[in-house]
Design a protein that fits this description.
There is one protein chain. The protein has one domain (about 30-250): Thiamin diphosphate (ThDP)-binding fold, Pyr/PP domains (Rossmann fold, 3-Layer(aba) Sandwich). The chain is of the alpha/beta class. It has helices at about 30-45, 80-90, 100-105, 110-115, 160, 165-170, 190-205, 220-225, 230-240, and strands at about 50-55, 70-75, 95-100, 125-130, 175-185, 210-215, 245-250. It has 9 helices and 7 strands; from the N terminus they run H-E-E-H-E-H-H-E-H-H-E-H-E-H-H-E. The chain starts with about 30 loop residues before the first helix and ends in a 15-residue tail after the last strand.
Length: about 260
């Protein structure tokens, strides 16, 4: 109608916890979407006053500047150790860390293994883009066999570079792990499932059951040499068949029983 005022209703926008700080992520990077997942879950659970995040080195390093909750920083590969200290000092807080491929599965592998063995009650958000994102797209432990990178220009050869690490499955074998899942953010349906998985991980932590981890498959267009749309298609057609989505472990208790090695005399 001419001269009429069209009423507009806002149906979506920036999550309340996501501040206006410009992000440094490349166009098409999935980390911005995963930031939204994290914000929405914290908001919906009403835990922003007790949530504490730990950001490491690499692409996930600046994450603490984008979310309006308490955040700390760890040296590259040391997020598990720092998160352990923060959680033990603040046992009632919901503590989580963000870690990428190299940060968790390479330089930080030892710290990650021992955090799971100790059944630390915090949550890891693992960002799997199949390579080192911020340092030039080098091959990582999560790079699939045959995938090209800046240090495997003919494709990763497992005979010389080793086999591919499957983080969510590996975590599921650890006795101290309460929850392990792998999700993606390439479709609206997968976005919703990712939120459900992260909520479940936080719930395990709040119940004090044990360690929880959610692995996110994330596109990395510049290092993959693809457009953002092509990178999302790459996640669907190439990564998900290698890294299947789903819940690999979900338990409500951990067995701490100890065998009687020595008999009292």
């Amino acid at each position: 109608m001419t001269g009429a005022t069209l009423a507009k209703t806002k149906v979506a926008g920036r999550p309340r916890l996501k501040n206006a700080t410009p992000v440094w992520y490349c166009p098409g990077c999935g980390y911005g979407i995963i930031t939204r997942v994290t914000c929405e879950v914290i908001e919906e659970m009403g835990i922003e006053d007790i949530a504490i995040g730990i950001a490491p080195g690499g692409c996930a390093g600046p994450e603490g500047t984008y979310i309006d909750i308490d955040y700390g920083h760890a040296a590259h590969g040391r997020a598990q150790a720092v998160t352990t200290g923060v959680k033990r000092a603040n046992p009632k807080a919901v503590v989580f860390n963000w870690q990428g491929d190299g940060d968790l599965a390479a330089i930080g592998m030892g710290g990650w293994m021992h955090a799971m063995l100790r059944a630390e009650t915090f949550t890891t958000i693992f960002l799997n883009n199949a390579g080192y994102g911020s340092t030039g797209g080098q091959m990582a432990p999560t790079t699939p066999a045959g995938m090209r990178s800046s240090t495997s220009i003919y494709g990763k050869d497992p005979r010389t570079a080793g086999f591919t690490v499957h983080v969510a499955e590996m975590a599921a074998t650890m006795p101290g792990v309460a929850y392990s899942a792998r999700v993606a953010i390439n479709t609206p349906a997968n976005f919703r499932r990712a939120k459900e998985a992260l909520r479940r991980a936080f719930e395990k932590q709040m119940a004090g059951v044990g360690y929880s981890i959610v692995e996110f498959l994330s596109p990395c267009p510049p290092n993959w040499g693809l457009t953002p749309i092509e990178a999302m298609r790459f996640v669907e057609e190439k990564l998900i068949p290698i890294f299947p989505l789903g819940v690999f472990k979900d338990v409500d208790s951990i067995d701490y029983s100890m065998p009687a090695f020595y008999e009292n005399k």
